[in-house]
Structures are given as C-alpha cells and as structure tokens.
Amino acid sequence: MVPAPNIQTILFATDLGENARPIFRMAVSQARRYDARLMILNVVEPLGTTGTAIIANYLSGEAADKINRNGAREILEIMKQRLKSYSQDELSSFGLDWTPPLEILVATGNPSEVILDVAKKYTADLIVMGTSTRSFLGNTIMGTTARRVSRHSPIPVLLVPTGVQ
Q: Is 158 exposed, middle or buried (0-12, 13-18, 19+ CB in 10 A)?
C-alpha cells in the first residue's frame, strides 16, 4: 500500500478573480484533509514600462520614485487587507468548526516566478491554483501562469478548473 502524502503546507495562489471561490474552497478542503497550514498568496504585477514612463514624463525623478515606492507599498497593503477580508468571509460562509491556520502573503513580480519562489521559501508541499482557462476557437487553453507553475514546480500543483471566460 502506498503511504498518503505528507502535506503540511499548502500554498493557494489567487488573483481574487470572479472564479476564486471554488479554488479557495478546494484549498481549504485539502488543508482540512491533511491538517495543513494554508498560505494565501496574491502577486501584484509591477507597473510596466509604459506606466513608469508616463509617471516620469509628468513628475521629477525624485517625485516619480516616491510615487512608485509609496504606491507599490499601498497597493500591497490594500491587497493584503482584501485577502484577509476575503478569506474570513469565505471561511465563515463554510460554517466549519475547524479552519486551517492561515498566513496571508502579498508580493510583487512575475506571478509564476513569485509563486514558485514562495513555495520554495516556505517549503510548501502543494500549490493550489485556478487554471484561468480561456476559449480560443472553441478550444479551452490553460492560462500562462498556471501552465508555467505546473511545468516548473518541483512539488505537486492542484489545478482547479475555473470555467471558460
């Protein structure tokens, strides 16, 4: 008989999109099943070169740097509060007598790279995320982040279908 996997830490990566609820519930279900800690991660992509150039054109270098630094810090804090509120609302809607220990993380960077880095840093045993499927000429294709994470992850990745958008 094959022993059950030893899953102690689950990383739930989310963009808090409209299809996040079933993915979150799957992550909670797995955390309950394995009595594991659940980490919730949202990755904010950095302002692109166009946005940075627009800010730089209208402001001095020092003012633009200050807006970029403070703005990024504010956005990360807002996202952390949104994740906290979202997870509390979702967990209370379950009506469960036990919920997994939660840790909320927000980072900035390339989503697939950050997800893999955070999984490694916190020694996650499982990554749970949505497929972000899209329809192209009637065929469903997997989102870029989900595809990259599942391809490059050294640990199991549970991809939860999010439906055609």
A: middle
